[in-house]
Design brief:
With 112 residues, the chain is an alpha+beta fold. The chain has 5 helices and 4 strands; from the N terminus they run H-E-H-E-H-E-E-H-H. Strands 1-2 form a two-stranded parallel sheet. It is globular and about 50 Å long.
Length: 112
């Protein structure tokens, strides 16, 4: 999880800043002992941590770290690879624009 390791401070910061509407949930599909050690070492006790291979398959995630933004009614509204704070913030922008990804928005704008 090298990508997530470097992104964790930014995610925690975003989670604090946006706590009125955002709830961070972390997920992985690795070995239980390895994930438990990561969870403990990174101090993730205040966040839900899901260990599920099926979750990645359901969201068709091919590369990590990956972010999925789900609205209050349980509908996925944005998704994408998240290697930086800017990538995470692009999920919020995609939601604001009403598209699944910023790439979807750019493709839509180019076709007009």
């Amino acid at each position: 999880m090298p990508g997530l390791r470097t992104l964790l401070p930014a995610l925690k910061s975003i989670g604090s800043q946006e706590s009125k509407w955002l709830r961070l949930v972390f997920a992985s599909d690795g070995e239980v002992a390895t994930q438990q050690q990561f969870f403990n070492d990174k101090g993730l006790h205040e966040y839900p941590y899901v260990l599920s291979h099926e979750l990645g398959l359901t969201y068709q995630i091919g590369r990590l770290p990956y972010g999925v933004l789900i609205d209050a009614s349980g509908v996925m509204v944005a998704q994408g690879l998240c290697n930086s704070r800017e990538h995470v913030e692009s999920l919020f922008e995609a939601q604001r624009l009403g598209v699944g990804t910023i790439q979807d928005y750019l493709q839509r704008e180019q076709s007009h």
